[in-house]
Write a structure and sequence with these properties.
Elements: E1 15-20, H1 31-39, E2 43-45, H2 53-67, E3 73-79, H3 109-115, H4 118-135, E4 140-143, H5 164-169, H6 183-186, H7 195-208, H8 215-234, H9 243-251
Parallel strand pairs: 1-2, 1-3, 3-4
Helix pairs in contact: 1-7, 2-4
Length: 255
């Protein structure tokens, strides 16, 4: 078992706040839920599916204004991909997250062709991340993808040639690695990290913070992974069929 709890280190934190997109808050437990379960302290998961880094940085500020962060709070961020455009919905007054701009129904191809450009991505994302780090003490942060390498949208890579100051000011780049797992053994057609991916990420966070995870936590989420696979294989609901089927399958289960 990895990252097992042996001491009382977890008592140094009073609350845990987590921020990000669907890699932080999703249909099944994420790294954020795993850490909260292990620490057993007040937990605020403020991740929201589909949002980008401008929204994440804004939510971090909103949380600080609402809860007044202290040095005893554990603050963890998993930054989103850079191809996202964040807007606040005028009706719900919530962030309208629809994922990357290239397949987001809020932004038709004509809009993308006219307004999207890589330079804008670099400036708005890097600025948001840097400003959040200057205003809040973030204990650990990572990225959904490697923003300088190949993205999930093909061969696109960012050229920081004219933005070296922004590049130098960005915090250490820890990327959420999902290459070593097969996503519930290919039992569902969803490209989000599975439970064991999230457990590995939680362990990586613990190692950086010099914490050790309880063995019971590790065992719980290994068992949950197996349980989900078993239930999918024996369920009459086909979570591969469409989003509604996937949502129904997980919403009916206590995870």
């Amino acid at each position: 078992m990895l990252c097992l709890q042996t001491g009382m280190e977890k008592l140094m934190y009073n609350r845990v706040f987590t921020f990000g997109c669907s890699y932080t808050n999703w249909l099944w437990p994420t790294w954020a839920d795993i850490i909260a379960y292990d620490l057993q302290i007040p937990f605020y998961n403020l991740g929201q599916s589909g949002i980008g880094n401008i929204a994440i940085s804004s939510i971090i500020l909103e949380a600080d204004l609402a809860y007044t962060f202290t040095k005893n709070d554990l603050i963890i961020v998993n930054w989103s991909s850079w191809h996202r455009i964040d807007i606040v919905d005028k009706s719900s007054r919530e962030w309208a997250g629809g994922g990357n701009v290239f397949n987001n129904s809020m932004f038709p191809p004509k809009f993308v062709k006219k307004y999207w450009n890589q330079n804008n991505d670099i400036v708005k994302n890097a600025t948001s991340i840097i400003l959040s780090n200057r205003s809040v003490s973030i204990d650990y942060q990572s990225h959904m993808i490697d923003y300088e390498g190949r993205s999930e949208y093909g061969e696109t890579s960012y050229d920081f040639t004219y933005y070296q100051n922004l590049l130098n000011a960005l915090p250490e780049k820890n990327v959420f690695n999902i290459k070593d797992n097969s996503h519930f053994n290919n039992t569902i057609e969803d490209h989000h990290p599975d439970v064991l991916n999230h457990l590995a990420h939680a362990c990586r966070i613990y190692e950086t913070l010099n914490l050790k995870m309880q063995q019971s936590t590790v065992e719980k989420y290994h068992l949950l992974q197996d349980t989900i696979i078993n239930q999918i294989n024996h369920s009459k609901i086909n979570p591969n069929k469409d989003w509604d089927s996937l949502f129904k399958f997980f919403s009916e289960r206590e995870l």
